[in-house]
Amino acid sequence: MRRLGEYILFLGRLFKNRESFRTYTKLILDECVLIGLNSIVLVSIVSVFMGAVSTLQTAYNLVNPLIPKNVIGLVVRDLTILELAPTITGIIFAGKVGSSIAGNLGTMRITEQIDALEVMGINSASYLVLPKIIATLLMYPFLVILAGTLAIGGGYLAAQYGGVLPPAEYFQGLKLEFNEFSVTFALIKSVVFAFLVSSISAYMGYFTKGGALEVGQSSTRAVTVSCIAILLSDFVLAQLLLI
Amino acid sequence: MIEVVNLTKSFGDKTVLNNISGVFEQGKTNLIIGASGSGKSVMLKNIVGLFTPDSGQVLYNGRNFVNADRDTKTDIRREIGMLFQGGALFDSKNVEQNVKFPLDVLTDMPEDEKLDRVNFVLKRVKLENTNKRMPSEISGGMQKRVGIARAIVNNSKYLFCDEPNSGLDPRTSIKIDQLLQEITDEYQITTVIVTHDMNSVMEIGEYILFISNSQKLWEGNNDDIIHSGVQELDDFVFANKMMRRFKAMG
Ligand SMILES: Nc1ncnc2c1ncn2[C@@H]1O[C@H](COP(=O)(O)OP(=O)(O)OP(=O)(O)O)[C@@H](O)[C@H]1O
Ligand SMILES: [Mg+2]
Fold it and tell me: Which residue of A has its CA nearest to B162?
């Protein structure tokens, strides 16, 4: 509970006497590149397999001959857009980007780089953390869109080469009873997840005390807490917006 | 000149600094000395504003930093340079970017003027042709010198150093000490150095403030320190055999 209060105060500090807008633009761009490079390969690989495996398993479970095969396309589509793309990407993101944010800030803390900024009169929390959070908010939705697209592509590969249904039927299924809101919902989720992962990891790293060992612990804790926060907020958002 | 007046700082119920006062003069190398854990770093952090004292004043040429308004604090901060114990160089920036950083955030200087200034101070600390190296690629002594260059690049009036010699061999230590003293004299900076290195004390101790058991037990200079008559200080100064022999010889 005390930590939650500290976390909220920390978020408040990010917006107090900031540096100039120009300073942030460059920092944000640098962070965007870093975050993108950090996670794009793993997200892509996982997404393709996620889509392919979902297709195979849905096909495996669909034994009733009365249900047309193209339903597989529909199931994979909704599963991917609503849940798998934002959430699984979120978990990967927490592991790759969250731990790197916490490790980076933790190292800066224990090697007094944060003190050095403070002595120069810079609001170190805002200077170091705000660009990371904004860059995450900008990049993460793109990763989710990429993940969704690749997963559906992975489903096609399974259809084509796994021989579970003709690709034409798969594509037909994709267009069946499509509800645009599911895309909006996925994007809302991705913005929330991005904020949670980046701010929680930054908080864990920024308040590291001790030495190299503690930096490692902060990184691990950042990943664990981020994942829990993602899953909890996933549940809450589904409850609020879908039901 | 920096005046510290009745500075007190506790963490929880543990008093680390108890009513400490001292005057650090311009153009002098002022030392804060004491055993490990005696509160030297805490004192320095209170002076530069990384900690807020429980009571007492820190006057920078008469301006009290402790409860100054934001503008005064910003003004004073612009005049402060600090060398940290481990160098505290930004590890994602190269030497040149590190030294240029204070100019980037504190001034509106045009880029080429900044680079001229950076090259000037790098030359002053005897580090040429290292501009593009990363902090991880240079030695500890070089990192300290980059740290000094960064601390003085914005024409700092006040220079603070937390154990500038830690982790360096004796010869390199003396070179860093001499560099600090030269710079202090040349640019008439008010320099405050935290150390527990007796070589530094004897070499550059123009004013020395000794802290023990959270109190100031002695102040003076390197000529007087061996005749202080303060038991705790003698224990500190004559901790090694050579110094004891030196004392026995008179
Ligand atoms: N942020 C803090 N919170 C609580 N206690 C602290 C904090 N910083 C320092 N202390 C305590 O204050 C005391 C003095 O610490 P300080 O770092 O000033 O010692 P030092 O004289 O610089 O020692 P060294 O020569 O080893 O660097 C120590 O007992 C330390 O545990
Ligand atoms: Mg110390």
Answer: A112
B119 in a structural domain: no
For residue B226, what pLDDT is reported? 84
Pocket test residue of B18, B33, B42 for ligand 1, highest count of atoms within 8 A of CB = B42
What CATH number is associated with residue B48?
3.40.50.300
Q: Is A109 left (phi over 0), alpha (psi -120 to 50) or beta?
A: alpha
Answer whether residue B177 is part of any domain: no
Locate tokens 């640019």: which residue? B187
Closest protein CA for atom 25 of ligand 1: B36
Domain boundaries, position B230: 1-79+157-165+187-250
pLDDT in tens, B154-178: 999 999 999 998 888 888 899 899 9
Q: Which of the residues in chain A have pLDDT under 70? A: 17
Please report whether residue B215 resides in a domain.
yes
- Separation of A116 CA from ligand 2 center, angstroms? 15
Among residues A218, A220, A194, A162, the alpha carbon closest in space to that of A93 is found at A194
Q: How many domains does chain B have?
A: 1
Direct distance between the N- and C-terminal alpha carbons of chain A, in angstroms, rounded to an integer? 30
In chain A, what's the furthest Cα-to-Cα distance?
72
**What pLDDT sits at residue B181?**
94
Q: A25 and chain B: CB distance < 8 Å anywhere? A: no
CA of B101 to the centre of ligand 2 (A): 25
Taking contacts as CB-CB distances below 8 angstroms, the residues of chain A near B111 are none
Chain B residues whose CB is inside 8 A of the A111 CB are 86-88, 91
Conformation bin of residue B129: beta by default, left when phi > 0, alpha when psi is -120 to 50 = left
A206, A13 Cβ separation under 8 angstroms: no
Counting ligands in written order, which one lies closest to the CA of residue B43?
Answer: 1
CA–CA dist B26, B233 (Å, integer): 25
All residues with CB under 5 Å from ion ligand 2:
B 41
* Min Cα separation A235/chain B (Å): 38
Residue-averaged pLDDT of chain B: 91
Lining ligand 1 with CB less than 6 A are B 11, 16, 34, 36-42, 196
Q: Which ligand is nearest to the CA of B16?
A: 1
Query: A56 by DSSP, 3-state: which?
Result: helix
> Please, are residues A195 and A136 in contact by the beta-carbon 8 Å criterion?
yes
Q: What is the pLDDT of residues B41-99, one digit of tens each?
A: 999 999 999 999 999 999 999 999 998 898 899 899 999 999 998 889 999 999 999 99
pTM attached to this predicted model: 0.89
Contact A126, A22 (CB under 8 A): no
Instruction: Please name the residues in contact with B50: beta carbons below 8 A apart, sequence gap of 6 or more.
Output: A115, A118, A119
Domain membership of residue B170 (yes or no) is no
